[in-house]
């Protein structure tokens, strides 16, 4: 495994530096930009009169509640994650590794990331997914078999970056 730069204890989740920075950036935006935008919307809505029948006010308050909930969610997540420094440039597959595999004659490329960094459009799969779990710790040249709805899938590991 790469260097672990912060630890939140045994029950923590792993995350890449990129994923941690993305969460911090979102938190900063929610606290320092969205909060102010929503507060301004609430003030403008108050000026429209009776709050009991003011749809704009109710919508802004709902948005405020959602924003504050997301802030709490990110803060809680940041407290229980362990940041893994490095980007998987080792011989063994780990968090941050870019892996090229072959399955049924087709080559596929994946990046192994934490649960909250998953992005299928960018081929980022979770280290907690069946394929991610099977690949962790393996090397190029190895093979893994993963259960799938259509049966067991066999993957040959071609390259690890």
UniProtKB/TrEMBL annotation:
One Pfam short name: GreA_GreB
Record-linked SUPFAM superfamilies: FKBP-like (SSF54534), GreA transcript cleavage protein, N-terminal domain (SSF46557)
Stored InterPro entries: GreA/GreB_C_sf, TF_GreA/GreB_CS, Tscrpt_elong_fac_GreA, Tscrpt_elong_fac_GreA/B, Tscrpt_elong_fac_GreA/B_C, Tscrpt_elong_fac_GreA/B_fam, Tscrpt_elong_fac_GreA/B_N, Tscrpt_elong_fac_GreA/B_N_sf
A GO term for molecular function: translation elongation factor activity
A biological-process GO annotation: DNA-templated transcription elongation
Ranges for domain Transcription elongation factor GreA/GreB N-terminal: 14-83
Keywords per UniProt: DNA-binding, Elongation factor, Protein biosynthesis, Transcription, Transcription regulation
Domain of life where this protein originates: Bacteria
Record-annotated Transcription elongation factor GreA/GreB C-terminal domain positions: 92-161
NCBIfam families: greA, PRK00226.1-4
Family affiliation: Belongs to the GreA/GreB family.
Role according to the record: Necessary for efficient RNA polymerase transcription elongation past template-encoded arresting sites. The arresting sites in DNA have the property of trapping a certain fraction of elongating RNA polymerases that pass through, resulting in locked ternary complexes. Cleavage of the nascent transcript by cleavage factors such as GreA or GreB allows the resumption of elongation from the new 3'terminus. GreA releases sequences of 2 to 3 nucleotides.
Protein name from the UniProt record: Transcription elongation factor GreA
Gene name, Swiss-Prot/TrEMBL: greA
